[in-house]
Design goal:
Strand content: 5-15%
Largest sheet: 7 strands, parallel
Number of strands: 9
Structural class: alpha/beta
Oligomer: single chain
Distance between the termini: 49 Å
Helix content: 40-55%
Radius of gyration: 20 Å
Number of helices: 12
Length: 309
């Protein structure tokens, strides 16, 4: 572990924490990050001063993990403005596009992101998804950036198990800090292979789009009603309950996006929320993963019908 990485973790965890915001380990890095962070996909579609205010409100409430990417339009510019004067509070993550992930391209992309973010370092830098460049070429560029102090750790995004196995072999044991993945109540496929693999190898799982981009359970649906009932019992909101369900495993953190300060405050409210095992089971039953749903359907079929599957 380099001194740069150690000092980064110390910066992230230094200072008083807002009451109730749970923090967790981030892969093999020392220190920890908040269980609820801040995403920025499409944040540049919002009124920029409002988006900046949302990010700053999130920081005030302990959501110091801020995620972005070179692909996200002007999101890095918005974040750069939001964190000005507060950089040491932030665990800052960006991503390189696969098309830029050559040895030279990775370094050039990182330097562009640093300029847009108005900072001299990223706390973690990710390969956005698997592309055509060899993983060892990209990872060697990551390691060079670490040596230069421009990034303090690195990871991957949208990697399934075969990709992770290759990445583990190419990058070396303990080098992959995280795997950022699509994960929301209507998309739970990662629970069956990818998430357990990451847990077994000490890799943090970062849930992006945790509200599903328009696929959040409708209020009148069975799942929506369960979320509302549990939320009412805790004086919380359905979205806070959903976030808490998604981070029920200690390996997982979530990065919901907020386009205004009120939404940021609502997201932060999931940090101190605690659900009982019975409540988690209710949500799991009302909003089952596709595999659990398929198993339930198959179990109701006559034995002779199973031969057609």
């Amino acid at each position: 572990m380099t001194a740069a990485v150690t000092s980064a973790a110390q910066r992230v965890t230094s200072g008083p924490e807002p009451e109730g915001m749970e923090r967790r380990r981030f892969g093999s890095l020392p220190g920890d990050v908040p269980v609820i962070g801040q995403g920025s996909w499409y944040i540049d579609d919002a009124h920029q001063p409002t988006a900046v205010a949302a990010l700053r409100r999130g920081l005030d409430l302990g959501m110091s993990h801020i995620d972005t990417a070179e692909m996200y339009g002007d999101a890095e510019l918005v974040i750069g403005e939001a964190i000005a004067g507060r950089r040491d509070e932030v665990f800052l993550v960006s991503k390189v596009l696969p098309g830029n992930a050559s040895a030279r391209g990775t370094i050039a992309a990182c330097e562009r992101s640093l300029a847009r973010l108005r900072t001299d370092r990223l706390d973690c830098y990710l390969l956005h998804w698997r592309g055509s460049y060899p993983l060892d070429e990209t990872f060697q560029a990551f390691e060079r950036l670490c040596e230069q102090g421009k990034i303090l750790s690195w990871g991957v995004s949208n990697f399934d198990v075969p990709d992770l196995e290759e990445a583990w072999a190419a990058g070396g044991e303990g080098r992959i800090a995280c795997n950022q993945l699509l994960y929301h109540l209507e998309e739970r496929a990662i629970e069956y292979a990818v998430l357990p693999w990451c847990e077994q190898h000490g890799i943090a799982v970062v849930a992006y789009s945790p509200f599903g981009h328009g696929r959040f359970p409708a209020l009148r649906s069975a799942g929506g009603q369960v979320l509302e009932e549990i939320a009412a019992d805790h004086g919380a909101t359905a979205r806070q309950v959903a976030l808490r369900f998604l981070v029920r495993r200690s390996s997982t953190v979530a990065i919901p996006k907020a386009s205004n300060p009120e939404h940021a405050a609502d997201n932060a409210g999931a940090g101190p929320l605690r659900l009982t095992e019975a409540e988690l089971d209710r949500i799991d039953a009302a909003l089952p993963s596709w595999l659990a749903s398929a198993e339930a359907r198959f179990s109701r079929l006559p034995v002779r019908s199973l031969s057609s599957y």
